[in-house]
Each structure stands twice: as structure tokens, then as C-alpha cells.
Design brief:
It is built from no helices and 10 strands. The protein is an all-beta fold. The radius of gyration is 13 Å and the shape is globular.
Length: about 120
């Protein structure tokens, strides 16, 4: 059983920054691909950033250049640094530790962390 706990969300003005954290109950050392999804009201879940065990990263076009994903294997934690936030970044953000699986079949979703970008 894997437990994922997301934190770090909040209310921020446009142009501001937030750093999200995903604490994983087990070791992430052997996890190949993990990442961050977000879901805005009335919209489908969207993969915004992914990181692989070798450190390579991928980003959705909508966040490229503004978001940075990282992982700390020693702390079993993944991060998402979000800069230059826009109102359209408003969503609940979730972490996922198995990007090889269809997200609808991923059984370990946490409660997520709410990010609201508004003036």
C-alpha cells in the first residue's frame, strides 16, 4: 500500500510562486516515472510534469518554462516549483508515482492540494 500526501498549495496572486510537495510512504528510489497531475473544475485531469529516475523531465506546454519538477530520493519526496502563476493554473494538484499506468487505474491518489491563483 502506497500513501501519497500532497501539500504546499494555497491562494496566490498572479505572478506569484508556490512549491508543492508530495511525500511518499515508501522508497521512491526505484520508481521510474512519477509526476504531477492537476484537475480544474469541469475539466479533465491533466499531466503537467513528469520526472524519471535518471532525472529527465517533461512538461505540458502550458507550464513549460514556469514549473520545475524535482525529486529527492533520500526524503522520498517529489516537488513542483511553480513560478509566474496564472489564473488558469488554478486546480487541485495530485502526485502520481506510476506514470506507466493509465491514471484511471492508478489506485493511490491522495487528496491533492488546492492551488488558487487570483487577485
Amino acid at each position: 500500500q502506497v500513501h501519497l500526501v500532497e501539500s504546499g498549495g494555497g491562494l496566490v496572486q498572479p505572478g506569484g510562486s508556490l512549491r508543492l510537495s508530495c511525500a511518499v510512504s515508501g522508497s521512491i528510489f526505484s520508481i521510474n516515472a512519477m509526476g504531477w497531475y492537476r484537475q480544474a473544475p469541469g475539466k479533465q485531469r491533466e499531466l503537467v510534469a513528469a520526472i524519471r529516475s535518471g532525472g529527465s523531465t517533461n512538461y505540458a506546454d502550458s507550464v513549460k518554462g514556469r514549473f520545475t519538477i524535482s525529486r529527492d530520493n533520500a526524503k522520498n519526496t517529489m516537488y513542483l516549483q511553480m513560478n509566474s502563476l496564472k489564473p488558469e493554473d488554478t486546480a487541485v494538484y495530485y502526485c502520481n508515482t506510476d506514470l506507466s499506468r493509465d491514471p484511471n487505474e492508478f489506485p493511490y491518489w491522495g487528496q491533492g492540494t488546492q492551488v488558487t491563483v487570483s487577485s
